[in-house]
Fold:
Amino acid sequence: MSKKLIILLIFVIAVCGVYGSYYVYADTVLVPEDLKVFQGDLNKSLSSPSDTYTETSIEQSDANLTKMENGPSLTIIPQNQRHLMANTIRNENNYTNIDELKQNLTRENARAFKYDLMLKGNVANEIRSVYNPAIIPVLEEMKSLQEKMATDFENGDNKSYAADIRKMNDLGKKLHDLTVNSEAQLQDIVKQLG
Structure:
């Protein structure tokens, strides 16, 4: 045998050995840890549904907004009450954990890469789908829109306030579309890893 063939054979055996060791380690140590994480996320998802979008709720909201736009001005509400309501809108902050969510999405996408290495592409794709980074811009836009809503309400601007709510409904639909299958996909991931 030539030296090149022997070196190539040793290299292939070494690569297979390293990959085999990684696969065994990942399958016996990392996958059970991941399974606990995904089960925890699934339990959180089942116990606190955050998705409030429904076609009926959006249609009802749109009907109310049309009435608001064409109804009496918000300025009939005394300024101090509008100020209190605006502060309530500002303090309904559902977006305080966006930075934490970004870190979680980064971590979970790295976890998906691990399943690519284990040749479990279907699990990796489902992880990427559940922990979709496209959620972040939608949440950031909702957060800034919430501040605008509060300001428009405080200023008594019916039309702008109604437009803000319409935009928030559109963003809610986008968020719904991005997360609608998350629970089912988490169940699939848990089933495949379990």
Notes: The helical segments are 3-47, 55-70, 79-91, 98-117, 121-130, 135-155, 158-179, 182-193. The CA atoms of residues 31 and 141 lie 35 Å apart. The mean pLDDT is 82.
